[in-house]
Structures are given as C-alpha cells and as structure tokens.
C-alpha cells in the first residue's frame, strides 16, 4: 500500500481563497482592510525568503502588507519602539517579528511586547497561556496548519494516539496542545526520549518537527498512520541543493496511510494560516464575526 499524499499546496490555496473572499466582503461592507506588518532584523537569507513570500501572499488576498527591514545591529530599544508604534496603529491588525532574531536581542522580551491581539504568530505568553487553557487565542500558524490538514483528512481526531516529535515553543508544544484540544491521546517525544522508534510506532498521527533531515524512517511508522512532516531542511544531494523534511518520505510512504510531502505540505499551510490569523485579528478588533 502506498500512502495518500496530503496536498498542502492545494489546501492552502483553498484557505487563501476563502480569506480573500472574506477580505473583499470586509472592504465592501465595512470599508475595512486587514493589515499585516512583518518585521525582519538582519539579513538571514532564509528569513528574507520567508518575509518576501509572506508579503506577496498578504497582498494577493487583498490585505495591506507593511515590511520593516531593520539592520542586524538594531538596538532593542529601537525595535521595541517600532513594535509600540505598530501596536498603536489601527490600520495594522497583525504583527509578526521574523525569528530568529540576532543574538543581542532578547526574543522573549520582543515577542511579549507585541499586543497579544495582534500577535498573529501566537507566540506571546498570553496566547500561549490561553491556548494551554483551551481559551480563545491566536494559534501558532504551523501547528494550526497541521491541525487543519488532520481534521480535513480524518474528520474527528478523538481518541487517536498522536505522537509529536519535537518540543519547541513554536511547533512541538503548541501542536501537542492542539491535538489534546481535539481529544487525541498525546505523547511528546524529544532528544532524550528512549526508544523513539517504538514510541513513534504507537502513533495513529505522527508529527515530525525535529529539524533533522529524513530522520523518521518507514520502520518507525505504524501501518496506516497519518504522517505530518513539519521539517524544512536544505541538503546537498548529487551535487544539487534539495529541500527535504524530517521524514524519510520514500520509506514512510510505503507504510503510512497518508503523508504530507516536503515541499508542498505543511509549508504552504503555514502562510495560509498567517493570513487567516490576520483576518481573525482584524475581525476581533472591529467587533465583527470571526471567520470559521
Ligand atoms: P527546534 O530545533 O526548536 O526543535 C527541535 C526539536 O526536535 C527539539 O525539541 C529537540 O529535542 C527535538 N530533537 C532533536 N533531535 C532529536 C532526536 N534525535 N530525536 C528526537 N527529538 C529530537 O526546531 P523547530 O521546532 O523550530 O522546527 C522543527 C522543524 O520544523 C525544522 O526542520 C524547521 O525548519 C521546521 N519548521 C517548519 C515550518 C514550516 O512552516 N513548515 C515552520 C517552523 C519550523 P530537545 O528539546 O530535547 O532538544
């Protein structure tokens, strides 16, 4: 049996289309345009690619996009002052500070200076607490995209065994919270987990967010499981640069029931969810019904 391929690119296009239609209605009926500000400090090449692709997608769905590109030696005071201005700007509904920040900046302090209502990445401590206690929050985009694909594929996730490999604040932990919220039985695995392969083989849903190219191989996958590959790793193969996930796709797809590819799986859904979060933030700021 070969796994069904979960087409994140097509799903993301559908989500972006729904967001664009909602944005058009907001403009027509209320004269409101959602606005997203993205702040990039320094010249990390991968971050530059992400930021420009986020800006392009924002404009494509009819939102206002503002990019602030600051030099790598920007002081913390200057960055905090910019965030304070964006917090106070009523035409901006979402603020995203691209991570990682240069080492001299305190990421936690910077992220926690964003107005939680505009924290479309969902990394502010208030949103983390709200998510953890099952209250309305801004949900981190990558895990939200994974959850949407899982719900779309399975319908109900209740009672399924979910294993999340990785415990970062931006992917692993919020992913586990979301799966718990959908009544999965959740295990979080990490670098100190004993017999990772056996833990993974217990998973009906296996989410890999490790940052290690092709580490999760087919023998670690339960037959028929759904595998979500969050990893984005640039490797050299046959003298060429290639993008691979944290899952060894060719072996895993022979065992899994369904699997996300890299590229074309989780990545496109992350940006679609960023746009959806910005739309949600805009609706909440204006006291309008939220998109479903
Ligand atoms: P981090 O490096 O912050 O976290 C990696 C996690 O994997 C850690 O919890 C670590 O455990 C765990 N880990 C590392 N090695 C092993 C191992 N050998 N066995 C078991 N667990 C291990 O990464 P992120 O969460 O930020 O990102 C994970 C991946 O997702 C990366 O490839 C990243 O590029 C990608 N990513 C993709 C996005 C998308 O839009 N598709 C968005 C964000 C990230 P420990 O805590 O013990 O060190």
TrEMBL record:
Say yes or no: keyword Hydrolase present.
yes
**Is Ribonucleoprotein found in the keyword set?**
no
Q: Name the pathway it acts in.
A: One-carbon metabolism; tetrahydrofolate interconversion
Cite the entry's keywords alphabetically: Amino-acid biosynthesis, Histidine biosynthesis, Hydrolase, Methionine biosynthesis, Multifunctional enzyme, NADP, One-carbon metabolism, Oxidoreductase, Purine biosynthesis
Q: Name one GO cellular component term.
A: cytosol
**For the Tetrahydrofolate dehydrogenase/cyclohydrolase catalytic domain, which residue ranges apply?**
6-121
Reactions listed under catalytic activity: (6R)-5,10-methylene-5,6,7,8-tetrahydrofolate + NADP(+) = (6R)-5,10-methenyltetrahydrofolate + NADPH; (6R)-5,10-methenyltetrahydrofolate + H2O = (6R)-10-formyltetrahydrofolate + H(+)
Q: Which residues form the Tetrahydrofolate dehydrogenase/cyclohydrolase NAD(P)-binding domain?
A: 140-284
Functional description taken from the UniProt entry:
Catalyzes the oxidation of 5,10-methylenetetrahydrofolate to 5,10-methenyltetrahydrofolate and then the hydrolysis of 5,10-methenyltetrahydrofolate to 10-formyltetrahydrofolate.
Q: Which family does it belong to?
A: Belongs to the tetrahydrofolate dehydrogenase/cyclohydrolase family.
Q: Which HAMAP family match?
A: THF_DHG_CYH (MF_01576)
Protein's name in the database: Bifunctional protein FolD
